[in-house]
Structures are given as structure tokens and as C-alpha cells.
Amino acid sequence: MGEIGTRAGIAALALLSLAVATSAAGCASDKATGGGADAGAVSGDGVKTGPGVTATTITVSALTDLTGPYASFGKSQTQAQQLYFDQVNAGGGVCGRKYELVVRDHGYDTQKAVAAYTEVAPRSAAIAQFIGSPMITALKQRVDGDRLLTIPMAWATTLLGSRAIQVTGTTYDIDMINGVEFLTKQKGVRSGDKIGHLYFEGDYGESSLNGSKYAADRLGLRIVEQKIKATDQDMSAQVAAFKAAGVKAVLVSVGPRQTASLVGVSLAKGMDVPFVGSNSAYSPQLLGTPAAPALLKDFYYVTAGTPVSVKNPGMRKLVADYQAKYPGETLDSGVASGWSAAMIVDEAMKKACEAKDLSRDGVLNAHRSQSSFGGDFGTPMDFTFFDKPASRSSYVLKPDKAALGGAVVFREPEVSELAKDYPVPVG
Amino acid sequence: MSDSTPTAATSTPATPTRPAYRPAVLRLPARPIRAALWLTVLAAAVAVPFYLEGFWLQAGLFAMSAAIGAIGINLLTGATGQLSLGHAFFLAAGAYSYVYLSSDLGLPAPLAAVAAVAVAGVCGGLFSPIAGRLKGAYLGIATLALIFVGQHVLFNAEPVTGGFNGRPVPPMELFGFVFADTPELVVLNVPFGSLERLWFLGIALLAGAAAFARGVLRGRPGLAMNTIRDHEIAAGVMGVPVARYRAGVFVLSSMYGGLAGVLVALVFQQVVPDYFGMLLSLDYLAMIVIGGLGSVAGAVAGAAFVSLLPQLLTRYSDALPLVAEPGSGGVSPAEAARILYGAAVVAVVLFLPGGLAGLATRLGRVRLKELKWAKSAPAPASRR
Amino acid sequence: MAVFLELLVNGISVGAVYALIALGFVVIFKATEVVNFTHASLLLAGGYVIARLHPLVGFWAALAAGIAAAALVGALVEFLILRRAHVGSRGVLAIVTIGVDILLTTELTRRIGTEVLALGDPWGDRVLRLGPITVAETRVVALAVAAALIVAFLLAFKFTGWGVAMRATAEDAETAALMGVRLGRVSLSAWAVAGALAAVAAMFLCVFPTPGLDRGTAAAAMKAFPAAILGGLDSTTGALAGGLIVGVTETLMSGYQSELAFLGRGIGDAAPFLVMIVILLLRPSGLFGTKEPARV
């Protein structure tokens, strides 16, 4: 009897507690907004505000990788952005408000990235840095739905096609097309030749491969593909395969470690051909490894971002300020790309402020109204469309031990004939 | 409910001055207290989505999914003594099957979820010829193959899995009620998005999974499994069909993995192959050790600890001492979480046999089962 | 043909490094029947010490220090944690080693940070040419060292007191203890030896053709698992055989991936595990492992 009685009692009590809990929620919860959370309010100064914007602050988030495979890149970017926003704040901020940068490290882990996004998105006005194309792809729909201006630090074509996501500069495939054309124009690769392409599994590699295949097709070249994983370290087998195929040049869309192994092994085995990498294939740290001589001899990389060794006024100031604030830290391409992404967000905020609308839609509209952004930190960008890369012009850079950031300009930025007409696959 | 028996049994060595009626005295308050406890838990669980923001709900949902998966592996590793490093594969099997069945084959969502759990079970069943042939450490490492081969398939079978980027997950739909952000729903002035709605589904699934596993562990199968763990040959001699039991537990544990996979996919809204890697499997093993081997409560406690810790540390990194701002060079929140979690595994085996669940029971009252467990683990002598 | 030979030689040379890692697993399993997941962090520890010390004291002294340090870490893990763990089964001890590994790896990768550390080895990027085939000198040395170490271990197991104690423990720990074998010492020494082996393996793992030690290095230890198990977890010969099989399989599959495109790109990573499963189905205790007669 006790059994049944207790069970019935439990059920009754459960229902009761449910009723109590829910009705309490109705009056006490912060969440009880009646569903109109992001309807937009107007702050005292007549500026329409949205999530992440109060009367005194604008919250900007960075979802970055500080403990995973892209830690070195993430660290430079985050520090550069911190520096940027600190400087803007010191100069009085924007729209009478100060920036607050919220940094979340996801360690290149999709679950952590999704969790971090869920946490910071409701209180952010923009995401100035989001590392990792698998993480962004997983969240693409939500970012789009949240209309939250997001600057991904990945350049795959799969990230195009969303109004809220602004891929900066060129995509990987454009870089590869420009790279292949560079090989034919300046490195003696001719129609009928084979060129190797070593690429990572995933967006980065596949996007790059799309570009190289397109260019090879147009120029009468043949691509020898080798796909690897980020955990592979020793490229001996791949070099053997390239060598056996008799490639005249190799395109490199992998991480810095694999680049070092590839170029080093190739040269040691007597395969002395030019290597052309994507911007993520190189990092100045490699010049401290035994592969340095080989890299200095044969390696080039293609990118839309201006290297930190270029002495234009903006870059000079950035380098000086960065070195003053973070003495002894490596100056890699992340410093410039992080800075430039922070600038994009800042410009959008300024424009949105002029229109007195800092709501998410206001920020997005302001951002999408700019057609020639750029200058000192990269090739000019057009933000008015979101189904094409913002730029099609890339530098060719070469590693250099003496230079800041370990690279110098080998060829000034150019849009190749092929890249101009290349139909970019979207989404 | 048979838990009054052990209570009575343990209290027998009471002082002779207070004879037989004592257990009854103990029993009377026990039940209302337990009922009240469960009620509080239930009320809290119901109230949570009305108060806490998305971050907490999502963290909770990840923990619930982890708890379901951990219950599964605790049946296999904790109760039956079979090390498995392949649990993440079964989560992937569940998650991807759900997506494939509901978006490509057009099954209704609940049916697709049930079928996905079945598919995970079938995968376990297909592996069990190997599981039946191999023992101990060999089987443990052989299950690693599931992870690596599984990842290879996930990355390459693009028409089904979507390759590197994975696929979007269609929302669950029960009797016309959609577990997604749209259509909008407002309950008692609180906007109910997908996380709020999934919260209740998660609670229900976890409760069901826990109750079923509890039944298995407390009944004859549980005894048989423990006997296999403690002495396989003796179990066989005593008439336990060892091979059948081992295969059965393997399948059951895979199905729990599959269910956890379906839930985590629903929360993620996108399945990506990267997630279902080696680290996830190791996390599950750490969960059951930290929580307590062989018990449902242990699995749940361990899952909560392991899955909430990094999220909490990351979120409150600004406020915590010792943990540095990300990127400033000190111990970052992610690293602090990993260190704490590694340390927890070590600390549990050194100081807390029975894990968090064991600690809770010891603080409460001593039960026969845990006594037995502690007895069966006099460390150095049994190690060879 | 030249390609095949080149790949084969490269595979054998990679396999030698895997064999060295696998040997560390085997020594611990033989002495204690514990699957040691801490091996990855022992590798990192050894490599880290070598990388940090070589600019100060030169490569050979740094190598010696690295070996000593990794041996010490191994011994400490055994002495402070595994010996005192209150667990019911060796399966649980394996999980404990996972915990220890997470702890050590996190701290070491934090120290390594974002750097790629060179080890300052004397071989550099020199290669040996055998007709059309080239192979890195470091790998030739690795193969020689692996073979020499394995012969040394075979002899030591047969002829030294330590080896006999270890074999007796592996056979029947209780009886061995009754006969006066100190189980604690056997297990402690096994962990120290495994640590030393890990440092040697780490050295070969981080020199040319790979660019250096970084936070990803520990992942390579995973590849030694199929190597150790398909040779037989308690067989030193098996470690060598397993290492070579894994190395050759992986290299051939990667090198011929264009021809094997129907298996999916990147099959090189999964292939060793498939080979492992096939071998285990045929021989449940690996190629050279000891069979357990009990069958229920």
C-alpha cells in the first residue's frame, strides 16, 4: 500500500512543483520578456541599439583558438585586436561608447565553439574574429539568423553566401589561381606540365583544390593530388609520389609544419621545384627549424594580406605599437589580419553610428554599404555583395629571415586574368 | 524498489542494546526524504529553462547527452569490465543515422531517432564478433580502430555524411511540436527557443535511460555482468553465458551511445565528423572513473563534471584567480579545465575509490554494494 | 617499381620510429599488464627536455638528459600514482594512465606554446642515396637503433636477473612474488625503461623529415598502438614487426592514394587500423603475443 500511496503522492507533488516553478518564472525571471528581446531599443542619445550595445559600451567578441593547432595565429590576432580596441577607446571610443572585447578560446573544438557562441552571441554587437572553418560552418545558419556581423579567420568558399559573415580578402581558390598563373608566368611552368597539390582534408584544402583545378584546366596543366590530415607530420611518402609523377611545381594548402616537412624533404631528395602555398601554409616560426634553408630557397606564398614587413605608414605604426605593447612576440600575418578585421568592425560601427542605428541590422547595413575598404593592410575589398570574395588580388610573398614577420613581397598584388572571370562556388 | 534491503542489511551490526526495530526507524524517514529530494530535483529541472540563459541550457544539454553516453559505457566498462575506446564511434553512428534517416529517407523525426539508436546497436552487434574473439587490453585497443576507420568514413562518404563540414540536423518533432527556434513560442512570458524546448526532451531521455540501466544493473543481468568483470572464468563455470552477455552489453552500450549522439546532434544543429574523435572516447572513460564505475549515478555525476568544467572555467575566466586571460601566457581556462580533469581522474583513484557517486553514498549512508566494491579493490595485491 | 621501392624504404624507416614507441608500450605491458596511455606525454617530456637543453649543452648531453628525465617521469608516474591507485582492474588502470596523460600533455603543450622546437641533431637533412631511392639519414639511424634496442631487450629478458624477474612477473605475479621477486621494483623499472625509450623515440620523431617538436607531436603516439598490438602486446619482436607493418602500410597507402582513390582520400591514417583488425581476427593475441588458453 505504501508503495502505491507514495507513488501517487510523488506524482501529485511533482505536478504541484511544476506549477509552482513555472508560475514563479512568470514573475521573477529575467528571461520573462514576453518574447520581444531583440525588438530594439532607443538609447538616450537617440541611437537605436541592439544586443551588445548599451549606453556606454559596445561588446565585440573574438572566438579564437589559443590552445589548439592554430594557437600561434590566434594569439597574434587576439593581441592585435585588443591593441586596436584599446587604442580606439583611448581616443574616445565610438559613438560615445567604449569597446569591450570578449575573448573565448575554443581550442579548435567544435563543441566548445558552439558553446562559446551560445554564450557570447546574445551580448555581442559583432564578432571580430572567428577562427576555424569547421566551427563557423557548424554555426553558419545561426550566425545568419542572428544577423550578427562576423569576420571569419578562414578563407574557404563555403563561408560565402551569408549576409552576416564577411570573409576578408581573397578566398583560398582565388589565391591558388593567382599562384598557378604566377608559376606559369615567372617560374617556367608550361602547358602540358604536371603540378602537385598537397592539401588538407576539409574546407581549406578543398577550396584551394577547386582553384588549382580550375587554373590547371584553363592553362593545360595536370594536377597531381595528395590529401593529408592535420595530424600527419612526415611528408616523405607524398614527396615520393610527387617525384615519381615528375611534377614541375607543388601547390601547398596545408599547415606550416607539413609545409616545412614537404619542402625540406623535397629539396633533400633532389626535387628542386618551386612551392607555392596558401596564406595558412606558412608561419615565421618555421625559419627556426632545420627546414629553413629549403623554404628560403624554393617557397612562395600567395595572400591578399599585406605582410608586416611592408613599410607603409599604417603598417609601420601597427608594428611599432604592437612591439611596444607585446615585446618579443612573433610578428606574423595574424597581427595584420587581426588588426584589419578589428578595423572592419570598427568602420561598420562608425557608419552605423552616423545612421543612428547600432542594432544588428543597422550594423550589417552599414557594413554592406562599403565598396572600397582597404589600404595599408591588404588588397582593396568590396563588401557590397556577399556571394563573391571581397577581393581577387593577391600578393606573392617570399620567406626572408631578416624581415619583420619572416616574409617580404616578391610580387606586388595582381588580379590574374583567370581569377577575374573565375566563377566562385558559393556555400 | 529494493533499496530498503541493503539498508537493513548494513545496519545489522548495530549495538545489541538496540535490536531489530532499528531498521524500521531508519526506513520511515528515508522514503519521504528521498521523495522530497527527487521532487526538488524535478522542480528545479522544470524551472531551469524559465530562469537560465541559453548558455546554461546548452551546457546542461551537453551534460545530459554525455550522461546518457556515460551510462552506456559504464555498463560496458564499469559493470562488465570491458575497456572500450570506441564509444565516440557509436555516438557518431546515432547522430549521423538520425540526420540521414530523417532528411534523406524522410522518416518522421521520432521514428528516425529510434531507428538511429537501433543502427548504433547494429553497429555494436557487427563489431561484437571481434569483441567476442578478443579480450582485455586487445579488445580495448581494437576498438580504437572504430574511431579511426569511422572518421575516415565520415570524412569520405560525403553523400551520406556531408564530409568535412557535416550536415545540418533536422529538428525533432513530436506530435506536431517542433523542437526548434521557429515557430516562436512564449511560455509564461519566457521566449521558448530550441534550447528551452530540448531541455525537457533531454530530461525525459536521461530519466528513461537512467531508469532502464538501473533496472539492468540491479537485476540478474547486473549480477552476471559484475561476475564477468570480477572473474570471467568463474562466471562461465557458474553458468553465466559469458559470450552472449558480453555481446549483449556491447550492443546495449552502443545503443546508449547512439541515443547520446542523437541528442547531441539535436543540440548542435549540425553534425561534424571532427567532434566524434578519439578525445571524446577518452572523455567518456574519464567520466565514469571520476563519477564512479559501475553505477548509473556515477556515470551521471562524472558526465556533469567533465562536460561542465571547461565551459564554466571558460565563462568565468575573468573572475577566477590562477586562471589567466586567454592569450596572456598563463594557464588559460581551457588548459586549467584539462589539468583539473586529469587531476580529478588521478585523485579519484588515489583517494576516492567509488568516485563522486561513491563519495555521495559514503557521506550519506553506507550501502552493501559499495562496501563490496571497495573490498574488491585492494590495489597493490591484485596488480600483476 | 622505383616508386614502390622508394615508398617501401620510406615505410620501413617510418616504421622504425613506430617500433621504438611500440617497444615502450610492450615493456610496460609485459611487466604490469597495463595499457599505458601516458606514453604520448612521456614522448613529449623527453623531446621537450632535449629541445630546451641542446642549445646549452650540445645535442648528446641533451639527449642523455632527455632520456634521464623521461625515465624519471615514467618512474614517478608509477611510484606516485599507479602503485597507489585503488582500482579493481587493469582496465581501470589504463583509464588512470589516460588521466595522467591529459595532465602531463596539457602542461607540456602549454610550455611548448606556439613554437616549433628544433632538436639540434647532428644528422640534419642529409639523405642516403641507394640508386634511385633516397632515405633520410635520421631514419637509417632510427632503424639501426630500434633493431639494436630490440636485440638488447631480447637478450636482457633471457639472461639478466631483471629480465627473468620481469618474465616471471608476466607469467604469474603472485608466484613470482612468493619466489622473492619484488613486484614493485619490476614495475618501477619497467616504467623507467619505457620512459627512456620514449625519449629516444621522441628524438627520432622530431628530427628531419619532420620539422621539430611542437604541440602536435604527441598525436604520433596513437599510431604506435596498432603497431604494439598487432605484433602482440607482450612481445618485443612483435613491437618491431608491428612498427614496420604500420609504417609500410601507411606509407604505401599514402603514396598510392591517387590509385586507391576509391577507398577515399587520406586512407593512409585508417589503413593501419584495418590491418590491425584483420590480424587480430586471425590471431587474437597478435603475431607474436602469448595466447591465453582460457576459453569460456
In words, what does this structure look like?
The complex is a heterotrimer of chains A (427), B (384) and C (296). Chain A has helices at residues 2-28, 71-90, 110-120, 133-146, 172-186, 203-219, 236-245, 256-268, 292-298, 313-325, 333-354, 360-367, 417-421; strands spanning 41-42, 48-49, 57-64, 98-105, 126-131, 150-153, 194-200, 222-228, 249-253, 275-277, 299-303, 357-358, 373-375, 378-381, 394-399, 407-414. Mean pLDDT of chain A is 85; it is low at 1-5 and 34-39. The radius of gyration of chain A is 25 Å and the shape is globular. Chain A is an alpha/beta fold and 427 residues long. Chain A is 43% helix and 19% strand. Chain A has two domains: 48-170 and 308-391, Response regulator (Rossmann fold); 172-303 and 411-421, Rossmann fold. Chain B has a single domain (56-375), classed as ABC transporter involved in vitamin B12 uptake, BtuC (Orthogonal Bundle), CATH 1.10.3470. Chain B contains 17 helices and six strands. Chain B has helices spanning 4-10, 22-51, 54-79, 87-104, 109-133, 136-156, 158-161, 194-218, 220-230, 232-237, 242-268, 278-291, 296-315, 333-351, 355-363, 368-375, 379-382, and strands at residues 167-168, 173-174, 177-178, 186-187, 190-191, 270-271. In chain B, helix 3 (54-79) runs antiparallel to helix 13 (296-315), helix 4 runs parallel beside helix 6 and helix 9 (220-230) crosses helix 11. In chain B, 52% of the residues are buried. The model of chain B is unreliable at 1-28 and 367-384 (pLDDT under 50). With 296 residues, chain C is mainly α. Chain C has a domain at 16-218. Chain C has helices at residues 2-32, 39-57, 59-81, 90-112, 137-159, 161-171, 173-178, 183-206, 221-231, 236-255, 267-282; strands at residues 127-130, 133-136. Chain C has a two-stranded antiparallel ribbon with strand order 1-2. In chain C, a hairpin with a 2-residue loop joins strand 1 (127-130) and strand 2 (133-136). The longest helix of chain C is centred in the N-terminal third of the chain and has 31 residues, at 2-32. The model of chain C has no long low-confidence stretch (mean pLDDT 86). Chain A binds chain C through residues 67, 69, 71-72, 75, 201, 224-238, 240-241, 243-244, 256-257, 260-261, 264-265, 267-270, 285-286, 288-291, 294, 330, and chain C through 2-3, 6-7, 10-11, 13-14, 109-110, 113-116, 118, 124-127, 134, 136, 205, 207-212, 214-217, 219-220, 250-252, 254-258, 265-266, 268-269.
